Amino acid sequence: MRRHMMVAKVFIDGEAGTTGLQIRERLVGRRDLELLSIPSERRKDVAARAELLNAADVAILCLPDDAARESVSLITNDTTKVIDASTAHRVAEGWAYGFAELSREQAGVIASARRVCNPGCWPQGPIAMLRPLVEAGLVPADFPVTVNGVTGYSGGGRAMIEDYQSKGDEAPEFMPYGLTLKHKHLPEMQKYAELTRVPLFMPSVGNFSQGMLVAVPLQLGILDKVPTGAQLHAAIADYYAGLPSSFVEVAPLAAVERTAELDPESYNNTNRMRLHVFSSDEKAQAILVAVYDNLGKGASGAAVQNLNLMLGVDAATSLAA
Ligand SMILES: NC(=O)C1=CN([C@@H]2O[C@H](COP(=O)(O)OP(=O)(O)OC[C@H]3O[C@@H](n4cnc5c(N)ncnc54)[C@H](OP(=O)(O)O)[C@@H]3O)[C@@H](O)[C@H]2O)C=CC1
Ligand SMILES: CC(=O)N[C@@H](CCC(=O)OP(=O)(O)O)C(=O)O
Description:
- Keywords: Amino-acid biosynthesis, Arginine biosynthesis, Cytoplasm, NADP, Oxidoreductase.
- This is N-acetyl-gamma-glutamyl-phosphate reductase.
- The protein is α/β, with parallel strands linked by helices.
- It folds into two domains: 8-119 and 299-318, 3-Layer(aba) Sandwich (Rossmann fold), CATH 3.40.50.720; 121-294, Dihydrodipicolinate Reductase, domain 2.
- It is 32% helix and 21% strand.
- Strands 8-9-7-10-13-12-11 form a seven-stranded mixed sheet.
- Strand 5, helix 4 (106-111) and strand 6 form a beta-alpha-beta unit.
- Helix 1 crosses helix 9 (296-311).
- Bound molecules: NADPH dihydro-nicotinamide-adenine-dinucleotide phosphate (NDP) and ligand 2.
């Protein structure tokens, strides 16, 4: 007797963009999904989008913020579930934060949510490193956190990709930005790392396509009770050790001058994230570093991980990369 598999209808609104295309590529061979699609020339046609948004079991929004808000308003039924890859709903009421490794409960929260926002690429690393330390009481919530990092130019979407690729070697090798200190990722970084002060954040773009590295240097000497590097590392490692289907790994505590492991491209085309702790107990200093793919765990990988959770599919097997 043939067994009937439940086939979920998925519509990627913005499927022609950087994130949308990558999600499509990750889903296209799946027999448990039917991908609903709009002809490219009608991709901004509101009526066509409304029809597919309402026909979908899950809509994945890969759009600029305003268009993502519009998509949500076009859903008139109470059955379509939404994963929004934009910044529009990251700290909004009624939306589950789509970083499944945020806590022991978060995968379950995502699995039962109707509205899930994918995390921003930049905040995921700092949140993954700081939240365990704040929860363990090793770093206080009001610690003056600074964050810096480098991403490949695909982080800026189609316009930035075209700009860098047309300039080639003439494009800047390294370009700090966010210099007005108002980066759109600050609210979610602060909220989900459980900080009471807004972090000071300086991102930068490198002349490479994808992959990212985010660093959080800690001047621990200002604390009354200074944690050791081993304590920081143990708190982070313990946090992720027991999580089912975690895509966050913690590198061994290492006293090294340099390591090729801090290549921002090292986890490209995967849904993985690797966390490092470097420290000097003598100086009461530490540097936390996260390496992941801005288009993988930072965007399309996380979206597929969330989709799997919402559909009750085993994320570990379908996201093995
Ligand atoms: N790139 C990255 O690393 C990450 C991106 N994100 C977020 O994901 C979202 C998509 O980003 P990204 O894929 O990089 O962006 P892109 O610019 O590459 O793609 C956006 C897509 O949406 C289309 N679009 C724009 N306006 C509308 C509209 N009103 N109706 C329907 N389609 C529309 C665009 O078409 P057209 O090009 O013709 O205007 C384009 O195809 C953004 O919110 C972004 O911030 C999240 C995490 C990481
Ligand atoms: C290089 C570059 O410009 N990167 C983008 C972040 C990309 C991203 O993650 O955007 P979402 O917030 O929509 O997820 C930026 O810093 O604004």
